[in-house]
């Protein structure tokens, strides 16, 4: 077995362990209000700053409370979101995250984590499962064990996703 195979098996095992623990704890804080938000986006997605600004305005929070983790396909330094970036090379051969910035992002106690990624690779699943966010939101087409709340819209329709998210955050009295 190659090192990449060992790495993938280790990450899958860690992700399943995190999901099992999360399922057992099941400590969803529906009543807490959203102030800090962690956002995971793909480098090539149609997500843009205008969507982020609109979301900030609706949540009534400032930009210092929004933190972005960009999943990149390459290792170049360009990051259009000026946040923390991640790629699969940030994992060691045994499935341990090497990036201190990514670890800091995942260990942050965000009130809400929004996963805008359009594919459910094992790396992205691990990021969501590992996050300490109190309330996790993502697309309904992705693994339902990852999220507390899922929205069923097409992946490229960020504005529609955000409208639905805001609508339900108001219903849940989170904003």
Describe, in plain words, how this protein is organized in 3D.
Strands 3-2-1-4-5-6 form a 6-stranded parallel sheet, with helices on both faces. By secondary structure, it is an alpha/beta fold. Helix 1 (3-25) runs parallel beside helix 4 (122-130) and helix 2 runs parallel beside helix 5. It has one domain: Rossmann fold, CATH 3.40.50. The chain is built from 5 helices and 6 strands, in the order αβαββαβαββα. The chain has helices at residues 3-25, 49-59, 100-107, 122-130, 158-171, and strands spanning 37-42, 66-71, 84-86, 112-115, 136-139, 149-151. Helix content is 37%, strand content 15%.
Largest sheet: 6 strands, parallel
State the helix count: 5
What structural category characterises the helix and strand content? alpha/beta
Strand order of the largest sheet: 3-2-1-4-5-6
Query: Stretches where pLDDT falls below 50 for ≥5 residues?
Result: none
| Beta-strand percent range | 5-15%
Share of helix among residues?
Answer: 25-40%
Sketch the topology as an H/E string, one letter per element: HEHEEHEHEEH
Mean pLDDT: 82
CATH class: Alpha Beta
Based on CA atoms alone, the radius of gyration comes out at: 16 Å
CATH architectural category? 3-Layer(aba) Sandwich
Question: How many structurally independent domains?
Answer: 1
Distance between termini?
A: 49 Å
Overall 3D shape? globular
CATH-assigned fold name = Rossmann fold
Number of strands: 6
């Amino acid at each position: 077995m190659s090192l990449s195979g060992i790495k993938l098996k280790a990450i899958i095992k860690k992700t399943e362990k995190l999901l099992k623990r999360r399922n057992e704890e099941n400590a969803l804080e529906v009543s807490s209000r959203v102030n800090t938000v962690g956002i995971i986006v793909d480098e090539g997605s149609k997500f843009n700053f205008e969507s982020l600004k609109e979301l900030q305005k609706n949540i009534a929070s400032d930009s210092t409370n929004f933190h972005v983790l960009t999943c990149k396909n390459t290792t170049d330094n360009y990051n259009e979101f000026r946040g923390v970036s991640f790629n699969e090379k940030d994992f060691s051969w045994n499935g341990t995250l090497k990036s201190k910035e990514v670890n800091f992002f995942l260990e942050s106690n965000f009130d809400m984590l929004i996963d805008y990624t359009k594919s459910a690779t094992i790396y992205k699943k691990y990021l969501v499962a590992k996050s300490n966010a109190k309330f996790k939101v993502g697309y309904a087409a992705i693994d339902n064990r990852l999220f507390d709340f899922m929205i069923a819209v097409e992946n490229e329709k960020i504005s529609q996703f955000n409208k639905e998210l805001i609508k339900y955050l108001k219903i849940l009295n989170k904003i």
